[in-house]
Write a structure and sequence with these properties.
The chain is an all-alpha fold. It contains five helices and no strands. Helix 3 crosses helix 4 and helix 4 runs antiparallel to helix 5. The two termini are 14 Å apart.
């Protein structure tokens, strides 16, 4: 029940701890990347992001990943493309939705 009441940032921090304890390096890296983007937005705008704003940050990150995948595919960079696909897939699995 407490998990449902937690805001997205707290849930992401919990996901980071769980990934760290489980040794899931890819998931840990993705959650850290998401938390860094959230923190950067908070610092830049000098505000605390609410859940809706965090979802907007997540959507922006997903869009950037999809664009990167398309560019890597066009350039024939299969290794980077695969890495971005894994990162996008991991962020979808990690990203909590309100």
């Amino acid at each position: 029940m407490a998990e449902q009441d937690a805001n997205l940032k707290e849930r992401l921090q919990g996901d980071m701890k769980a990934a760290l304890k489980a040794g899931e390096k890819a998931r840990l890296a993705t959650v850290r990347l998401i938390l860094a983007a959230v923190k950067q937005k908070e610092v830049d705008e000098r505000i605390m992001l609410d859940d809706a704003q965090i979802v907007m940050v997540l959507d922006k990150m997903a869009k950037q990943r999809r664009e990167s995948i398309a560019q890597y595919e066009a350039a024939g960079r299969t290794i980077w493309q695969a890495s971005s696909r894994r990162n996008l897939r991991s962020s979808r699995n990690t990203s909590p939705r309100p």
